[in-house]
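Predict structure. Chain length: 91.
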Amino acid sequence: MRALGVRDVSTTTVLTSLLTGLAADSVLAGGPGGGRRRVATVLSMLGGAAVGALLLEQIDLSVPLFLAAAVAAGSLALLAGFSVPRPSPGG
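Prediction complete.
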């Protein structure tokens, strides 16, 4: 999907392709093994979901929404200094 330039990719699609890549790279599947970065990504997504659900159950909707907005703003601030090269329209 990245090569095709699909813009609106859902979290489900990202997580599914992440888990598929993790399984394909495993030693059991004949891959090189490793994949610490992918495992860390899956664990952080699960952890974020668990924390969000816990906050939603124990407090109210405003706290998880505020934290999500703060994380998004912080991520945007960190990435603001980086530029991604865009492919030329001609190929």
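Summary: Residues 36-58 form the longest helix (23 residues).
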